[in-house]
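Issue: copy button drops trailing tokens. Both records pasted manually instead:
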Amino acid sequence: MTPIGKTVTLTVAQAIVRYLAAQYIEIDGTKTRFCGGGFGIFGHGNVTCLGEALYNSRDELPLYRGQNEQGMGFAAAAYAKTHLRRRFMFCTASAGPGTANLLTSAALAHANRLPMLLLCGDTFITRLPDPVLQQLEHFGNPTFGVNDAFKAVSRFWDRITHPAQILQSLPAALATMLDPADCGPAFIGLPQDVQGWTYDYPEEFFAEHTHRIRRQAPDVAEVADAVALLKNAERPMIIAGGGVQYSGAVAELTAFAETHAIPVVETIAGRANMLVTHDLNIGPLGVTGSDSANAIAEQADVILAVGTRLQDFTTGSWTAFSKDARIIGLNAARHDAAKHMSATVVGDAKLGLTALEAGLADYTAPTSWTKNARDQRSTWDAYVAENTRLGNGPASYAQAIGEVNRLCDPRDRIVAAAGGLPAEVTANWRTLDIGTVDVEFGFSCMGYEIAGGWGARIAQSEKEPDSDTIVFTGDGSYLLMNSDLYSSVLTEKKMILMVLDNGGFAVINKLQNNTGNESFNNLIADTPTATNQTRVDFEAHARSMGALAETVSNPEGLADAFARAKAAKQSYVIVMQVDPYEGWTTEGHTWWEVGTPHISESERVKEAHIDQESTRTQQRKGV
């Protein structure tokens, strides 16, 4: 026991680091640090004080040197997601542009409800040296600066203006990151002078503490209302979201579905809640979904939505469901549970499913309904088999995905994020094991792929070192942010990177064409200002950063290349050109609301607008 009343004199930075090193969490019976370490790029705003403190704790809290602050944030988000929000990383950046670079990754963590602690330099509280390097001056409000921008993308925000404040702010930040409902990024601004100020902190503040993630039991009356709806359902369906995995409720979800013969469809975040071979897994739902899931979704009369925020790609902008369908929202967050006038069951997914099971007794979905769902899935499986078959057309994303799926190990982790690959992976990937797919489509952020792959591999190496992290990226995302391929080489965190080059932003070109517009400024070939039509040598670029790399000329060459990548001890890049026009997955799409011009000189644009609006009649308007 730490003596009560004793104090220790520390700088603010030293106190923060000591506190983080003392926080633990129990995972599967093993006590481990809640904070797995951090990512940092030092500058004048954080190197002298926070850098000093981190150096002295470099064994307890390993610090990974980033190449770009945004990439650090992406890596931290992927790390937390791989650990199912049970561990987090901090990111530290200097005052000014370094911190500003973290805004996008904070937004990604916020959208995806992922824990991340941002420890960022700030201007001087005393203001004696103002205006300082990289300071924004707001003449009417001298307290207002770059760090205030994080208020929009943080679940917790504070600026430390006195050393004693961290006694309240640090526990509040950790409580936010541990909360199943409010989980997200926590931001703490650290003025450069305050970081070095000292305070006599209570020693018990730094005592080891083991945290638990709260499991909130649902309200008995809400459960009863949900049970009544389910008992009367003739065509029930379960939507399994990412919250199922965060709750550790995969077994309960599967047992619930099996006991009552209820078909299950998955969201993008919920991919890999069920194996592809499970006969109640009817496929992914929504805009980037499957014909099977979408077919039963539009017929379902009662929908149990578990651990999902019902994003537009899940709901088809709210056209995927019958207007008469009743939705039950089982979610730890009341805001998500209550969407579109759902019958709410606010609480933990594991406890909520157990409570529903207790009340549902002998209910079983009609045999004809379950058979219809299974038949729909069989038809979809046949489509995917043909869609991913080598030789079915020009080289495509689907063919590459199919080959990797066929050759990878069941526990390998798949990472994708932006462009056309999230849709193609979601539709065509056949889940081999639970919790092995990370398609970042909450913020759908270009650049997450490689940085996120690095963070995912750091987490994976802590618990499944013999598995691989496999990243799918297009040429656009690679060019946007590739430097953490070098980070993976430096830190010996091997990942396999599939660079599928279609000559630009091909999926947005497809959307451009589908809305009647001419190809313009998406594919490099259709960019008028790109007067020197040069293709990037991605293999040479990857090799320059220390990775092993090769280019295959066609999908038939992927098998041998992938075998070499699996056998390699360091990051391995496989490059292949794919067709920007042909080979897209054409089935499995619900309507998606995008803004289209109401008037245009182009007949094609006008026709596309009319066609787009024709489906709006199916849209549920808030109910």
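Record 2 (pasted manually too):
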Amino acid sequence: MTATLEAPADAAPDDPPPPPRRRHPVPASLAPWHDPHPLVGRLILLAITIIAGFTRFWALGSPPGKNVVPQNGMNFDEIYYATEAQELLRYGYEDNRGYMFIVHPPLGKWLIAISEYLWDGKSSEYLTNSIGWRIAPAVAGTLGVIMLTRIVRRMMRSNLFGGIAGLLMAMEGMSLVLARTAILDIFLQTFIIASFGALVIDRDKVRARLAGLIADGADLSDAAPSLGPRPWRLVAGVMMGAAGGVKWTALSFFVLFWLLSIVWDRSALKAAGVRRPAGSWLYRSVLPSLGSLVLVPLATYLLCWLGWFTGENSWNRHWADTHHSPWYLQWLPGPLRSLLNYHHDAYSFHEGLSSPHAYQSNPWSWLVLGRPVDFYYNGAEKTCGATTCSREILLIGTPLMWWAFVPMLLWLAWHWITTRDWRAGAVWVAFIAGWLVWFQDLSRTAFLFYMAPLVPFLIIGLTLALGTMLGPALRGLPTGEHFLRADRRRAWGIAGISTYLGLVVADFVWMWPLFTGGLLTYSEWHAHMWLPSWV
């Protein structure tokens, strides 16, 4: 008998290792960007922050200074918002002791109240120092400049152009005046910038995830993978809800930014090679976005009204106790029905607001600075060395910057049509939300500062135009005639950009006394009035 001995299974020779996974090329539109010089970016950001902080905090309490009659040192609508912020400090809600009806949500006034508390304390019988109610706007304005610098850096993949955008934003006159005044629009602008910036980061994260899967050999042609987790889209939703908690003007941005985000997702899936992206897009992007970009903003907005909900004497707080609601609202708790009625009354007020104002303006005139707004004027001082003196805070954009916006928008439209550049599309989406939306009712009383949330996007568009003027980088181009032509073009581009930025800086310095209420002789003040409608 012959026995055959077989090696046990665990003694079998090891299987050969699998061949290394082949790396697949990643589409250029999905490839992530890694800053080769992050220290340069940080130094540029530091310089822009210093400029923005200095211009917004310098002599913040002047003019008119402390306890100036008749408005206790208040400029323009500070008489409303600083007073309402003080009510929040005293009672935890706006009880309308100063005004019968308040038509804006409370978050912006809560932010002003915090700075009042930090400066003066809530024990003051009345507002005593203009610095107190202007700290929060100045902080918000500085943060807006910082965020825009980093957003444009990410969008253009350039520290240089991030710095240029930040410099333009720091020297934009209307945003500067709003950041030095305790009214709501600078908070609206800052939250809109933050929301957009979070969506841009989310866009990059989604594309980087898809790029990683493609590079590892994943086949995405049949079905898209999960695009999450997406914390930055959640942040965008919170910021958008906070923007609505300042002013309802955020609503148009909320709707269009939601559409923009899901369109970016569909474009990413298509670039990743998904053959039928519509179904995957609905499941992976649209449905989850209803939570992060619809429910989260709504919850954030309601949270802004917490003081109203808890205050027994809040305006309209107990309306539902004595009024009958339509059948389709009966399921809601009484406080929510009261809040809805409050919102209905506020909406009716806004829709019917047509009372004339000396500084109202039509949206057609905003892009050319047709009618700026006088926030403060004093012609009684006699210390300027001339017979007549003038001190004014004029809400106006930096003219040589603003007058480039219209040609920039025309170029940007052509640029999007010919290249489908997503950045150009984003600027135009913001333009629709921040300017075209105002044409639905031209009889409504409106002011130039309604453009505040749009201005950062116009600066993004202007920076894109300057980037195109500069031309592509020379690195990687073969030497020869083509290289020489590109080199000459880049030299002309540098000259053009430097000239334009120099003119904007000079214009900003010229307009500085009007932005900050500097004392001028009457003839000097009149020389600043380039258009008759500015007077």
